[in-house]
Amino acid sequence: MTGDSGAQVMPLRPKRPCPECGRPSARDTYPFCSKRCKDIDLNRWLKGAYVIPVRDDEDDGDTPPVTERE
Question: What is the mean pLDDT of residues 40-55?
Fold first, then answer.
């Protein structure tokens, strides 16, 4: 059998820059460019630098409203 030189292989993931430094991402540390950038991001997660802001006045809907008893 002969190979078809006109066939194109689609990449599994689109190329994108490293979220830490902006260099091209590496396959083995995707989406980061290196283990160093990957570890920097993990450290930020572990220290609590990434948080989702929450307002105190939001009703979570899980607890029933408090009613007064006579």
Answer: 91
